[in-house]
Amino acid sequence: MSARYEIWLCMPTGEQIEPLQWNRIRYTRAVNDVGMCEVWLPSDYDLNRLGIDYRIDIWRAPEWASAELQRWYYIRKIVANEETIRVIGVDPIDLLRRRIVYYEYDPAGAQVSEITADTIAGFLWECAHTLVYDAGLAYRDLSSYGVRRSGPQVPIGYSLPTIHYQAMWRNALFVAQEVCKRSLGTDVPVYFDFECVPPKTLDFRIYYGLRGVDRTGDGFPVFSYEAGLLDNPELTLDYSNEVTVVFAGGSGTGTSRIVREQYDADRITRSPFGRIEAFLDMRSESSTDVLDDHAKQELEAARPRISLAATIRDAPGSRYGVDWALGDRLKIAYRGYVFEADVKKVDIVVDEDGEQISGTIEGA
User: Fold this and answer.
1) From residue 47, how far is each of 27, 78, 342 by CA, in Å?
2) How far apart are CA 362 and CA 343, in angstroms?
């Protein structure tokens, strides 16, 4: 039995206007990326009632629970013909796409603020800062519209990875995505999202270690193609761009140039031809710590990729919202390989045939 849905049209600031009579909806959510929605309305709906950045609020009630807000989306496109009206929206992560990371200058020309944070989380806070400014830039501040920053503390016993990254004048969403990519492979991968809290609060959050719930332990199901829980599995074993030794060259010339080496001994010894070298040219850098950091990042980025991509079915033993959800880590089995894979995207379509749910997983 499909879940029940209510779709509300709201003002950009959350005030409800009316429930929508819809023919079909599709909405997506993605880890560290913008989600989308499409709502098909009757062709005689009054277009004047729709406005730019008006909200589409999606409420879902599964058969075993009461209705909960799934997400809201801001209208960015409307397509109308004689048969239907299609309303297209983007979720709150798009607000980061609308901003760049930059800093004001005072009349005397002295810079008010610089990026000083040297951790992944610090850069994410800087991205959120483009939407919620504590002082000085009222015209960029959306806190009066419900946007706020919060998030859990770093888990006990862990320290956040340090990065060196130039974020100024770059798109805030791109920066947030890039620094999260750099955290992969460290002790504490980092993720970000906005939590929609009705009626209007948007809570920017940072997640440490995992975006969702770890469901890989005892008592949780193993998702496999053979059990009918996966569609279109594709296993990839890719060593084509592997690098096992990275030299980072800093300032200086000739024999006086600073050169730092980082290598992966285990991968080098897997083959008699396993020493695969690369050079990172950073001739303006004099800090050995910075050179080491970049060489390690390059080494991690050039690891061989053994991965699985597949789609999760919404079926008995694999129910969305019960057995898995966005960002959860699942145990996946395919062709003799067992993976821990994360749910990267959820895609839901609701029409006259009911509700169709699929989740996209990636793991290595």
Assistant:
1) 21, 9, 40
2) 7
